[in-house]
Amino acid sequence: MIILLLVFIVQFSVSCACLALNREQQGQLLEVGWNNTASARNDIQRNLNCCGFRNYNPNDTCPASCAKSNQKCSSCAPIIGEYAGEVLRFVGGIGLFFSFTEILGVWLTYRYRNQKDPRANPSAFL
């Protein structure tokens, strides 16, 4: 029961944190991740067909097809931000759902943990 309660507290906290992030905080987290991972940055630029996080410098290398064909490339921040916002809301909602089912498990455990075994004394329940 104690372990389930601790799991509830952690899961509830993470779910609330996912739902509480505003766009500015989300953008800051995404930018830190963008600056720290070059391989993920190249994959994102190639798959989403965008260049740069907030703005694109033509002197930088960009694996997106729009940069190779000399078209105007959009920045990746709005695309990633929209997707990350949807994922955070989804994960937060699912986490809240399961955290409340865990608290139901804690309550049921507390409620029925001292229930007597009917096989020990069959007339006790009559």
Automatic annotation (TrEMBL):
Cleaved signal peptide residues: 1-17
Coiled-coil regions, chain positions: none
Pfam families reported for this sequence: Tetraspanin
Localization (cell): Membrane
TM stretches of this protein: 90-110
SUPFAM superfamilies (UniProt xref): Tetraspanin
Keywords linked to the UniProt accession: Membrane, Signal, Transmembrane, Transmembrane helix
Recorded topology in the membrane: Multi-pass membrane protein
GO cellular component assignments: membrane
Protein name per the record: RCG62161, isoform CRA_a
Organism listed in the record: Rattus norvegicus
